């Protein structure tokens, strides 16, 4: 009967397990599972190219797990959902809350409209361990600094909700509007540039589960020691799965919490869980400061003298700056849709400080090319790197990509993988080939300016210029 059925609106929660909206709806009776892709022009943060590739496959996977019952649409949810309810006679709608500013606004309007029509709307938290309104300072204001936010705010709360299983049975409505085919959403580009990316990832809930299991079995115990070394496969690489909600932070939290580890590995467990805390913090900042993706958190940065140089931006994007650690990172991004966290900080610092390009430029490039592009994490992290954010790295702390490379890629495995033209250089010169004697370059087959660029800026000079520009806005 249609009036006992529930429309379940899937958004960034493309999973069956630990999905409270789906779980509760399935208990009620038949469900109509729906996904709505916004029209590109409706949403300033329409998914970038790499995210669209991921979304295509994630929807494909979810559709199969729902036995082909997932209905796909594109357009304005404020119109499509009332229309679907009208066509099917359904009187209940369930969804998991989305804490991004535009989505929250839309959801509030939709909920109000539906409730006025006598439709029952029920929403759940399925994407954050603690809701942003739950964690506040004693004076009722939101935290601005990560450590007190996590230690005194989050960890003093009751433990996060324990994950739910998948619904024991899911009965879907047989008669419902067909919607669009996955192909009609046109998420995949005409030219298959994503082939290389596709080899590294398995979008969808089963892939997310496999990734979590292998991380906990093989890498959690050495996370703290390995996590800063981009040449090692030491982190979880769960970020795209988390972004699309193919698994919940609650599932990761409890799997990590209950993993059997030697006592000496407790710092590894703690450190990993604290990284989930950084994710919470970014989403919390976006909730309380919805301007975070556009505006400097610290307004003094509005006066900063940014440079406008499309050619140097292109060199950065294409990994031809002549600074090996930066180029390796940008090429990793292009080839895999991912970049190691340590290297994101290095390439970010180089763009914003050595090249003095606005952090919006880096944010936009990452938005288009990362498979884990996420409005909260990307915006908060770029502001952190730029020094303009809440609890940011101070502007004057400028990463030196050469010493960073020597410290975190000492044997050069990472740079050699992504900059093969430098592979034969001895470790000593790998991170600064311009310092190698001519004989060493020749023996290694490196011709600076020919098969590998000369550095596009002098690191020392550009650092001094950045500090001078910062001094001008300090007061
Ligand atoms: P792990 O080390 O295994 O960490 C586990 C999880 O914790 C991650 O999957 C992620 O969800 C979360 N996490 C870890 N570090 C951070 C962090 N610094 N901030 C917020 N959450 C974190 N992350 C994104 O998910 N999307 C982005 O668009 C994004 N853009 C970034 C841009 C810049 C300039 C920087 C410096 C960082 C950015 N990050 C972003 C954060 C971080 O780099 C990635 O989350 C991390 O590299 C993902 O790899 P992992 O899953 O192996 O992480």
TrEMBL record:
Q: Which UniProt keywords apply?
A: Chromophore, FAD, Flavoprotein, Lyase
EC number(s) on file: 4.1.99.3
Needed cofactors = FAD; (6R)-5,10-methylene-5,6,7,8-tetrahydrofolate
> Does the record's keyword annotation contain Cell division?
no
What's a single GO MF annotation on this record?
Answer: deoxyribodipyrimidine photo-lyase activity
InterPro entries the record matches: Crypto/Photolyase_FAD-like_sf, Crypto/Photolyase_N_sf, Cryptochr/Photolyase_FAD-bd, Cryptochrome/DNA_photolyase_1, DNA_photolyase_1_CS_C, DNA_photolyase_N, Rossmann-like_a/b/a_fold
Under the heading SUPFAM superfamilies, the entry gives: Cryptochrome/photolyase FAD-binding domain (SSF48173), Cryptochrome/photolyase, N-terminal domain (SSF52425)
Tell me the domain of life. Answer: Bacteria
Supply one GO BP term. response to light stimulus
Site (Electron transfer via tryptophanyl radical): which residue positions?
A: 306, 359, 382
Query: What is its EC class?
Result: lyase
Which part of the chain is the Photolyase/cryptochrome alpha/beta domain? 4-129
Task: Describe how the cofactor binds.
Answer: Binds 1 FAD per subunit.
Residues that, per the record, bind FAD: 223, 235-239, 272, 372-374
Reaction it catalyzes: cyclobutadipyrimidine (in DNA) = 2 pyrimidine residues (in DNA)
Q: Does the keyword Secreted apply?
A: no
Q: Which Pfam families match?
A: DNA_photolyase, FAD_binding_7
Which family does this protein fall into?
Answer: Belongs to the DNA photolyase class-1 family. Belongs to the DNA photolyase family.
Q: What does this protein do?
A: Involved in repair of UV radiation-induced DNA damage. Catalyzes the light-dependent monomerization (300-600 nm) of cyclobutyl pyrimidine dimers (in cis-syn configuration), which are formed between adjacent bases on the same DNA strand upon exposure to ultraviolet radiation.
- Cite the PANTHER family for this sequence: CRYPTOCHROME, CRYPTOCHROME CIRCADIAN CLOCK 5 ISOFORM X1
Protein name from the UniProt record: Deoxyribodipyrimidine photo-lyase
Species this protein is from: Motiliproteus coralliicola
């Amino acid at each position: 009967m249609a009036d006992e059925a529930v429309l379940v609106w899937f958004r960034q929660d493309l999973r069956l397990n630990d999905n409270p909206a789906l779980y509760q709806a399935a208990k009620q009776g038949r469900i109509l599972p729906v996904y709505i892709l916004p029209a590109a022009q409706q949403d300033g943060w329409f998914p970038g190219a790499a995210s669209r590739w991921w979304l295509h496959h994630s929807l494909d996977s979810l559709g199969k797990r729902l036995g082909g019952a997932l209905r796909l649409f594109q357009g304005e949810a404020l119109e499509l959902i009332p229309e679907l309810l009208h066509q099917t006679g359904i009187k209940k709608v369930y969804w998991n809350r989305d804490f991004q500013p535009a989505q929250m606004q839309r959801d509030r309007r939709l909920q109000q409209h539906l409730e006025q029509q006598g439709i029952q709307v029920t929403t759940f938290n399925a994407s954050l361990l603690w809701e942003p309104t739950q964690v506040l300072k004693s004076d009722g204001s939101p935290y601005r600094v990560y450590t007190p936010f996590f230690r005194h705010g989050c960890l003093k709360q009751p433990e996060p909700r324990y994950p739910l299983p998948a619904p024991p049975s899911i009965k879907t409505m047989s008669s419902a509007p067909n919607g669009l085919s996955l192909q009609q959403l046109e998420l995949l580009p005409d030219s298959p540039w994503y082939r290389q990316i596709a080899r590294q990832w398995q979008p969808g809930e089963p892939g997310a589960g496999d990734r979590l299991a292998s991380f906990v079995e093989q890498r959690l115990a050495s996370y703290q020691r390995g996590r800063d070394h981009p040449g090692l496969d030491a982190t979880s690489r769960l970020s795209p799965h988390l972004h699309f909600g193919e698994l919940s932070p609650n599932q990761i939290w409890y799997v990590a919490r209950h993993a059997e580890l030697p006592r000496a590995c407790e710092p590894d467990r703690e450190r990993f869980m604290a990284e989930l805390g950084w994710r919470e913090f970014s989403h919390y900042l976006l909730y309380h400061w919805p301007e975070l993706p556009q505006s400097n958190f610290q307004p003094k940065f509005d006066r900063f003298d940014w440079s406008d140089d499309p050619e140097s931006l292109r060199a950065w994007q294409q990994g031809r700056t002549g600074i090996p650690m930066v180029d390796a990172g940008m090429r990793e991004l292009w080839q895999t849709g991912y970049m190691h966290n340590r290297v994101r900080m290095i390439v970010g610092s180089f763009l914003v400080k050595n090249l003095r390009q606005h952090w919006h430029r880096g944010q936009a490039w990452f938005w288009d090319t990362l498979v884990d592009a996420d409005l909260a994490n990307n915006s908060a992290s770029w502001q952190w790197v730029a020094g303009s954010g809440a609890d940011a790295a101070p502007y004057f702390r400028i990463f030196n990509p050469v010493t960073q490379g020597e410290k975190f890629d000492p044997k050069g495995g990472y740079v050699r993988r992504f900059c093969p033209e430098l592979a034969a250089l001895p470790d000593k010169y790998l991170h600064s080939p311009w310092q190698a004697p001519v004989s060493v370059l020749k023996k290694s087959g490196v011709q600076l300016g020919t098969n590998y660029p000369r550095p596009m800026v002098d690191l020392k000079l550009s650092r001094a210029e950045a500090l001078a520009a910062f001094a001008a806005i300090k007061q």
